[in-house]
Each structure stands twice: as structure tokens, then as C-alpha cells.
Specification:
This protein is an alpha/beta fold. It has 14 helices and eight strands. Helix 2 runs parallel beside helix 3. The N and C termini lie close together (10 Å).
Length: 372
């Protein structure tokens, strides 16, 4: 144990003009209802008011919201019924405030099934998202990974979905570090072979693919992949380890962003992108590079539990009144992990009210038996 002196003043991060050089989404977490009498196996009980208020916070800073993604605990506490309700409510809220929204389409209403059942599950979710008026993000499917016998099954399923989608979609490649059940996605554990299949899907339907979201935590692989994309297809980085350099780009291109780390970094990330809009790459990196240590800490292995740190920081920042998560996932990280996350976030000036964050951190320490 040691003494930590908290920061006294937060960063000044006001809302500003819309972005002009990059399209930026923050994947957003859900706020649990702390008064619901539930168990870890119960359907998610969501505090809808606090959940939607957080999305308005992101929209107010110019960020798009990537809804019902893994950051919202899809497959880790939030089932399809809860996700469908989240999509409908968030899409309606987006319309009311003029916010940009894209929503995850998966197959999590089934645990496993035949290829026909997987396709039907995707179709059901795609219909819900399109009927809500949101853009669709075709997420990687655990059920498809289990049912597919090779690349041809991925080509058939994704081709079918893209042919019937009303508007261009975002294709999401989530690596096994985020979900071990997705090992060997696109028909091969060899990432070069999987990349070829992924690109074949896009090449067959370039008019139906707005972009791709890549979450492999491998900067060079993402750079190589985005250079092979057809003209007009965006690359949205999902690399929570290397996002500043990928968004900044190089002489051959850049990545847009769809990131879970932009949930706690929203206002700071928005300010950095506005600096980048002026052509000031160095200024952009000066703002965003110092945040990477926090991001790498939150996303450390086992990476899939990064949501716990994201919600923890939302509580410290005053975006919700409690530190409770659907599925009881607040227990997924240790006290030393929380303490380091607090120090890093406080050092960045992320807490609008540093005193509130300090008091809440003291409360958590007390709950763990630490004498003040």
C-alpha cells in the first residue's frame, strides 16, 4: 500500500464541431439496474435511463455509438432479448438527438446450430437493426465458427446476408483474444489464409460493405489489410493497443475508428480527432498517445474482461451511480487492477469531478478491507 495524491483539476473537454477527416464510433457499455433481484444466470436487468444518458454523452462530443457490441456485454451477460431492446431504444434516442448509430448483428439467440439455423439467426437480427433505422454491423458468430466446415461456408453465409442487406454494412472481425470461441474464424487459424477469405467476401459485394472493423491487436496486419481493401471500403480500427498510429495513418492511408476504449476516452478522443481534422498529426498524437498505457491496462489478458474496467471508470467519472454490471461481471478484475486503472485515468484528467472519483475509489478500497 502507498499514498496516491489525486489530480485536482480535470481536462477541459468541451463539445465541438463535427469531425471532418475520420468517422469515429465508440462502442458503449450498458448500465445494470443495481436494484434488480437477479443472479449471474438471469437475463440482464438494465438501467435504461442511465444507459441512454451515457449514449447522449458520447453523441454530445460528436462520436458515433456502436451499439450492442461486445462492449455492451453481448454474450457475456446481455442476451439477444436484452440486446434487441437496447438496439430499439438507442436507435430511437439517436433519432431524437441526431446522433450516429450502428448496431451489432449476431446469432446469440442460438448457442449452436446448423448453417441454416445460423443464417436464420443472422437474418432475424439484421431485420431488427434495419427496422430500427440503424446501420448494421455484422458481428463474428460463435455459432458460425462452430458450424462451418471451411471457408466456403463463410462465403455462403456472408454473401447471402450482404445480398439482402438494405444498406452497406460494417463487417466485424473479432479475434480470439476477445472471444476464444472465435478461434479459426473465416475457416482457418492461419491469419493470412483467413484474411484472404475475408477479402474475398468484400470483393464479391463491395457496394454492400461500408467498411470493416478489425480487432486483432496487430497493427501491421491491419495496415496490410486496409491497403488491400477495394476503393471506398473503410477500415475501422478496433485495435485498442495501437489506435493512435492507425488513426493517424501513413502516406498510403489511415483507419477510421470503432473502439471500446473510446467509451472512457470519449471527450478526449473527440478533441484529438478535431486536432487531426486541422492536419495537425503531431498534436493529435500528443493528446492520444498518453492514453495507450491505460488502454493496454484495461485490455490486458484475459482481454474479454476489459468491459469491467470500462464500467469501473464510468462509475468513477459519475456516469452511473454504482459499480454493478450485468452478469455480475464487476468481479472479473482484481483490486490492484482497479487501483492502477484509477491512477492512469486520473493522471490523464479523465474524471470530470476528481474529488468524486477519489471518494468512490476510497469506497471500493474499504469494501475490499483496506483501512483508510
Amino acid at each position: 500500500m502507498r499514498t496516491y495524491e489525486s489530480r485536482q483539476e480535470p481536462l477541459s473537454l468541451a463539445a465541438g464541431a463535427p469531425f471532418t477527416s475520420r468517422t469515429v464510433f465508440s462502442a458503449a457499455h450498458v448500465v445494470a439496474d443495481p436494484y434488480a433481484d437477479v443472479t449471474p444466470d438471469s437475463p440482464a436487468a438494465v438501467d435504461w435511463d442511465a444507459t441512454l444518458a451515457f449514449r447522449r454523452h458520447l453523441w454530445s462530443h460528436g462520436l458515433g455509438v456502436a451499439e450492442a457490441m461486445d462492449t455492451a456485454q453481448r454474450g457475456m451477460g446481455l442476451d439477444w432479448a436484452g440486446a434487441a431492446e437496447l438496439i430499439r431504444r438507442s436507435a430511437a434516442e439517436a433519432r431524437s438527438v441526431g446522433g450516429r448509430i450502428a448496431c451489432g448483428v449476431g446469432t446469440d439467440q442460438i448457442a449452436a446450430g446448423s448453417l441454416a439455423e445460423v443464417r436464420a439467426a443472422y437474418e432475424e437480427q439484421l431485420a431488427v437493426v434495419e427496422q430500427s433505422g440503424a446501420q448494421a454491423i455484422l458481428m463474428a458468430s460463435r455459432a458460425l465458427a462452430a458450424a462451418a466446415s471451411g471457408p466456403e461456408d463463410y462465403l455462403e453465409i456472408y454473401g447471402h446476408l450482404l445480398r439482402q442487406s438494405a444498406e452497406p454494412v460494417v463487417l466485424h472481425w473479432l479475434g480470439p483474444m476477445f472471444d476464444p470461441a472465435l478461434e479459426g474464424y473465416w475457416g482457418s487459424a492461419d491469419l493470412d489464409a483467413a484474411t484472404d477469405v475475408f477479402l474475398e467476401v468484400i470483393a464479391a459485394h463491395p457496394d454492400k460493405v461500408d467498411g470493416i472493423k478489425v480487432s486483432l491487436l496487430d497493427a501491421q496486419r491491419e495496415i496490410d489489410l486496409r491497403r488491400r481493401l477495394p476503393q471506398g471500403v473503410r477500415c475501422y480500427t478496433g485495435d485498442d493497443f495501437n489506435y493512435p498510429e492507425l488513426i493517424a495513418g501513413d502516406e498510403k492511408g489511415f483507419s477510421h475508428a470503432l473502439l471500446g476504449i473510446f467509451d472512457p476516452l470519449g471527450p478526449l478522443a473527440a478533441q484529438a480527432v478535431r486536432v487531426l481534422d486541422t492536419g495537425n498529426v503531431a498534436g493529435f498524437r500528443e493528446l492520444l498517445d498518453p492514453t495507450v498505457e491505460l488502454s493496454r491496462h484495461l485490455f490486458q489478458t484475459p482481454t474479454r474482461f476489459y468491459k469491467t474496467g470500462v464500467v469501473f471508470l464510468a462509475w468513477l467519472a459519475g456516469h452511473q451511480s454504482h459499480f454493478t454490471m450485468v452478469g455480475g461481471l464487476q468481479s472479473a478484475r482484481s483490486l490492484p487492477h482497479f487501483a492502477r486503472a484509477y491512477e492512469l485515468a486520473d493522471g490523464l484528467g479523465l474524471f470530470p469531478d476528481p474529488k468524486l472519483a477519489e471518494e468512490r475509489m476510497k469506497t471500493l478500497l474499504s469494501l475490499y478491507g483496506v483501512e483508510q
